[in-house]
Amino acid sequence: MTASNLPSLHRLDARFDKPLPNDSSIQASAVAASILDDSFAQIDWRAPWLGHVQQLDAISQAITQLSAASNWSMERADTQSSAPETQALISRTQNTPDIIAKVLNTALHQQAADVQQQLPHTKPAYNHKAQTLQFVSQDALPEGEAYESFIGSTGNIPTRDNLHDLFNGSIWLTFPKTKALLNHYHMLEIEQQGVGASRGRVRDTITVFDENGAVLVTANPSIGEALIGFDWQGSLVQPRAQWDDPISPSPNAQAAVYIFGHALLEQLICPRKPLCAHSVVINVGQDFFALSTQQRIAFLDDKLADYMNELLSKDTVTPRHLSPLPILGVPHFWAENEDSHFYDDAFVFRSGRRKSNKNGFG
After folding, report:
1. In what order do the strands lie in the sheet with 276-283?
2. How far apart are CA 175 and CA 184, in angstroms?
3. How far is CA 337 from the centre of its chain?
4. Among 109, 243, 255, 354, which is least packed by CB within 10 angstroms?
5. What whole-number distance in Å separates Cα of residue 357 and Cα of residue 98?
């Protein structure tokens, strides 16, 4: 498979050659003394499914520089392993933890400054107060304490130096209200049910969406209805001209998909046709598509939080309320789906279960 033919920049406002700000915690000396494994160098920051991630330019710059520093230090170790300065470099890199947390905190503060708002915070549950969010070392999580409860009571998001937590943090930056709401429901369920071998239907639904979710936003309700009904022709093929192109967003578009699941973003580093998101449908007015990407996401975060609050409040909620969406079938996400025969693969685009109820909320 081949990726979409993308220009050098996938967002009109992205500037990947811009140097990191002088007040950033990621200074040149820190970059040289840090190490990330080779998996970070595999990220294609131009991929269309990353275009909505807030502070993407700053995050990509930092991770690219850190990945380059990692590769450079390993090459030095291979060629000059006996040199004292090389041993000192390796020692510094191996003892510089929590790089991803530092990158994300820098982006978090920059995002707040850009939109001139306070830092995002948790949604309190029970007697907990709203806590300002920040990324911290995984080691800060007390042994035996539930991850979600720790976030809710402290505002601290334990973060490891791996791809999974980089993308998780990126979604916290992009959809802070929705992430805080999902964490809130986790806390409520943990308070009532405890932490056991089974999460239960509410936490199962949250986890599936949190890890693998996507949002179809559409001004044409028939597109969402077709997706929910496993009608791939009616949702992805026939209305293709109505789908927004992430490279050049159009005010005339009527449908777009934004990925929420951080595990899905991690899997998309190596795209495979069978990758399937679990989606919800948000119906909007046509004026949504006249907004900038940043404005769209801020609006969508509010709408998605309301949607998930209503969904998770249902007594019958299960992950089956989330609609399967083969993610590489989204128009403009993958060059090969320009050919309508791409959708003839019955293993990927399955007939599925037909639903009489509509999951899309207005």
Report:
1. 255-259, 213-218, 276-283, 323-326
2. 14
3. 23
4. 354
5. 45
Mean pLDDT is lowest, of 14-23, 79-88, 213-222, for 14-23
Q: Which H or E run contains 74?
A: helix 56-79
CA distances (Å), origin 243, targets 246, 326, 328 = 9, 16, 14
Give the per-residue pLDDT at 14: 33
Closest C-alpha among 42, 185, 45, 21 to residue 103: 21
- C-alpha 303/C-alpha 8 separation (Å) is 32
Cα separations in angstroms, 209 against 47, 298, 308, 333 = 21, 19, 10, 20
Q: What's phi and psi for 353, nearest 5 deg?
A: -90, 135
* pLDDT score of 79: 41
Contacts of 218 (CB under 8 A, 6+ apart): 224, 254, 255, 256, 281, 282, 283, 284, 360
Tens digit of pLDDT for each residue in 134-178? Answer: 999 999 999 999 999 999 999 999 999 999 999 999 999 999 999
Average pLDDT over residues 85-104: 60
Tokens read off for 216: 């179809």
Angle CA 220–206–127, to nearest 5:
120
Please give the Cα distance from 324 to 305 (Å, whole number). Answer: 20
User: 259 in helix, strand or coil?
Assistant: strand
For residues 195 and 145, the answer to whether their CB atoms sit within 8 Å is no
- Quick check: pTM over 0.85? no
Beta bridge partners of 156: 134
Residues 6+ apart with CB under 8 A from 100: 135, 159, 160, 161, 162, 165, 166, 169
Q: Which amino acid is at 118?
A: Q
Please give the Cα distance from 219 to 221 (Å, whole number). Answer: 6
Question: Which ranges in 80-212 belong to alpha helices (H)?
Answer: 84-94, 99-115, 147-154, 163-174, 176-193, 201-212
Percent over 90 (pLDDT), the chain: 70
The pLDDT of residue 10: 32
- What is the DSSP-derived secondary structure letter of residue 236? I
Query: What are 283's two structure tokens?
Result: 């119906």
